[in-house]
Design goal:
globular, 5-stranded mixed β-sheet, 318 residues, 13 strands, 11 helices, 21% strand, homodimer, alpha/beta
């Protein structure tokens, strides 16, 4: 009899769940809204419901062997606790034991960026390598490290925070409270902030027009749209962000000498706008020994990287 | 019968060799000048002579089991080749096979900073941890990473180059050709360069006086001496370097979430001048999850960290 596991990618807005065999073959997959405002217990019930739904779809009469669960926020994978998850409104919740009780299945927890890294490493752009840095560039910049073929967690389960490498000590304030972090210079939020600053100085009129004239409505997407239409100011904003991204990637690559750096996240949907600039900056800044082995690649699994990482993690929890 | 191994730390100016038991107990140790100008073959003979000398001292009649050898420069530990070692004047030498032929003992090669990291991890400031970043701050800034209890080499054996994290993209030129690397901002060479720039602008007169009035003779040591005598300009130079060192360490710590960062090298002899400033900068810049687990420590083995790392490596070559 085939045995199954479940992977869950729990995000602030969506829950994505997949049922797969122990060989990693996905048999069914579903995405539902998180509805975080309904509260902690209701979110857990939603997760359990997706698992039931997939069991029904596949016609599985037994329980799955394990659930691999990715969640945001600083968390303790060993004790199974999420310390803080602002998007979900959670603080120090015993996610693992609560969900295990609800589903009757053992649950293994890991942070979402780490699982996305495992996903790309196992099924996507990092396949076949042993040393990989994964970055997700969206409203923030998160990351995960696969070193020597395994997820590297760090002494306090906090490794991979490439978004919080300082690149400009007196630079813009970051969400972490520090200044000049990579995240504060190259995330979608940073691009939007720079665009609004430009508009505040009387520039960026094409960008503003695309946001319906409302400065507050300007996002990185608006800037990307303007850049695709040929707007030079918008292009310059992406160039600047790409330069910082290159500086940050080169710093991490010089430290870790990986075979591949994989970039995912919403901002990478606009990669065509700045990929050349990014590659150029990385090549200029990495040491010869790293330049020789390093490849820069776009993530290949899109919004499925997290759930597929959760599947791989459920198959072989470390 | 007790079996022995040998650890060798080959530097540009000195060779340090130790004979130890498989339990890591050092029975004899010797240091001789490298005399690199005498040429490659003569340096190899010097190494072989130190091994013979130690065997005599201990009264060992058999050959040691293995030699663990630390050497400078980008090298390939698997093929046993040193690619470039400017201090020794070497390029693409087959160090492992040549030394093995000469001594009749199997040789295992690793770069010197990685072995110093292993030394501090096994016998020094990193003992008892699993995740450690080692930095050596001297004329340059080198480093080595112990992750999950093992040396992490990277995909091209080039991991640990913490000195070449970019911190100031348009900053001073680094020896690697890049701009604004940690090494270009906080090494002994950087401190001396800043002092000479200060003198060039008419300042730094106490520093200049301590160098006998010769601007070219100013080194980081001269600046340290002036600072210890209470010179405010010299103290400010160390403060500035310590700040950059803190920014660089925080960047690496946010990425790797280590339990300990160990600092060695010549500049750390003056650590009393800047340790407080350094700790402050690191604390201000690391993420909460890293701040909780991280300790900043001075290396404990002094000039023996390399040779003791070579001993540990010879005992258990990975």
């Amino acid at each position: 009899m085939t045995e199954y596991i479940v992977g869950v990618d729990l995000g602030g807005t969506k829950i994505r769940t997949a049922l797969a065999t122990l060989d990693g073959e996905v048999r069914a997959e579903v995405e539902v809204p998180t509805n975080a405002q309904a509260g902690y217990t209701r979110v857990l019930e939603r997760i359990a419901e997706t698992v039931e739904e997939l069991r029904r779809q596949v016609g599985l009469t037994t329980k799955p062997l394990r659930v691999g669960l990715g969640a945001p926020g600083p968390l303790d994978p060993v004790r199974g606790i999420v310390h803080v998850a602002p998007n979900l409104g959670w603080r120090n919740v015993s996610l693992v034991s609560d969900l295990a009780k609800l589903t009757g299945v053992p649950v293994f927890l890991e942070n979402d960026a780490n699982l996305a890294a495992i996903g790309e490493f196992t099924y996507g752009a990092g396949k076949g390598t042993r040393d990989m840095i994964y970055l997700t560039v969206s409203t923030g910049i998160g990351g995960g490290l696969i070193l020597g073929g395994r997820l590297y967690r760090g002494a306090g389960y906090g490794a991979g925070e490439i978004g919080h490498i300082t690149l400009l000590p007196d630079g813009p304030l970051c969400s972490c409270g520090n200044r000049g972090c990579l995240e504060a210079l190259a995330s979608g939020t940073a691009i939007a902030r720079e665009a609004r600053e430009l508009i505040g100085k009387g520039g960026g009129q094409s960008i503003l027009a695309l946001a319906g004239g409302a400065e507050d409505a300007v996002t990185a997407k608006t800037v990307a749209r303007a850049a695709y239409q040929g707007d030079a100011e918008a292009k310059a904003l992406f160039d600047k962000a790409a330069r910082w991204l290159g500086v940050g990637i080169a710093a991490a690559a010089n430290l870790l000498n990986p075979a591949v750096v994989v970039l995912g996240g919403g901002v990478m949907k606009s990669a065509a706008l700045f990929w050349g600039r990014l590659e150029e900056e990385v090549a200029a800044r990495v040491l010869p020994g790293t330049r020789e082995v390093l490849r820069l690649k776009r993530a290949e699994l899109g919004k499925r990287s997290g759930v597929l990482g959760a599947v791989a993690f459920a198959i072989r929890p470390e």
